[in-house]
Amino acid sequence: MFQVIPQDRTRFWKHVVKSSQGCWVWNLTLDEDGYGRFRLGTKRWYAHILSHEMEVGPIPEGWHVDHRCRNRACVRPDHLEAVTAHVNTMRGIGPTARNARKTHCNRGHEYTEANTIWKGDRRNCRACRAEDRALEKREVKVAKRTVRKEKPSVAVLRKHRLRGMSWREIGLEYGVSDTAARKWGSQMGVG
Q1: Which of 155, 144, 151, 149 is nearest to 182 (CA)?
Q2: CB-facing half-sphere around the CA of 11: CA atoms within 13 A
Q3: Angstrom distance (rounded) from CA 181 to CA 156
Q4: Half-sphere exposure of 71 (CA within 13 A, CB side)
Q5: 79 touches 23 (CB < 8 A)
Q6: CATH 3.90.75.20, domain 6-101, yes or no
Q7: pTM score, whole prediction
């Protein structure tokens, strides 16, 4: 990958500060993402990659160097590990990793083998899908009834909300949009 001469190695390590938390922090140029940068010859390298290559060994083709300490400015060799791109992503804090760690969908259904539908690398909740299809069927039935009911009373509207009906369901019941139903609730002081 590159040839490091003793002068470069000395120059590299003089830009490292050993912190009390255990990290060896890069004290020279950091990029906009917080990774250390170091010029070797005519090329700029990531400091953590140079540290790993100099002290641990070569990084397999296509692999990444993961900061096990989660500190991007750290160049301490035993805080760095060569891993696949997938492992590096899953260990991170980005949306892909956060979503992969979720055990329940946004509506609270558990992701079990029986309740999970996979489309490529994306998962969907089977229970939510069934609920959505049932609601769509009700919407079609309501749409076929083109007669609009009169605006409900405050008591009826409160009863619907206490039963757990959403504004969308109330709107469907009365042949209006969920926005119109929500507006009724606002006008009548029903949340």
Answers
A1: 151
A2: 10
A3: 12
A4: 16
A5: yes
A6: yes
A7: 0.60
3-state secondary structure the chain: CCCCCHHHHHHHHCCEEECCCCCEEECCCECCCCCEEEEECCEEEEHHHHHHHHHCCCCCCCCEEEECCCCCCECCHHHEEEECHHHHHHHCCCHHHHHHHCCECCCCCECCCCCEEEECCEEEEHHHHHHHHHHHHHHHHHHHCCCCCCCCCHHHHHHHHHCCCCHHHHHHHHCCCHHHHHHHHHHHCCC
> For residues 154 and 161, is the Cβ–Cβ distance under 8 A?
no
Residues 142-160 pLDDT 10s: 665 555 667 888 888 888 8
- Give the model's pLDDT for residue 146: 52
| Phi, psi values for residue 18, rounded to 5° | -85, 115
Give CA–CA dist 116/109, Å, rounded: 10
pLDDT at 44 over 70: yes
Which pLDDT score, from 0 to 100, does residue 164 have?
86
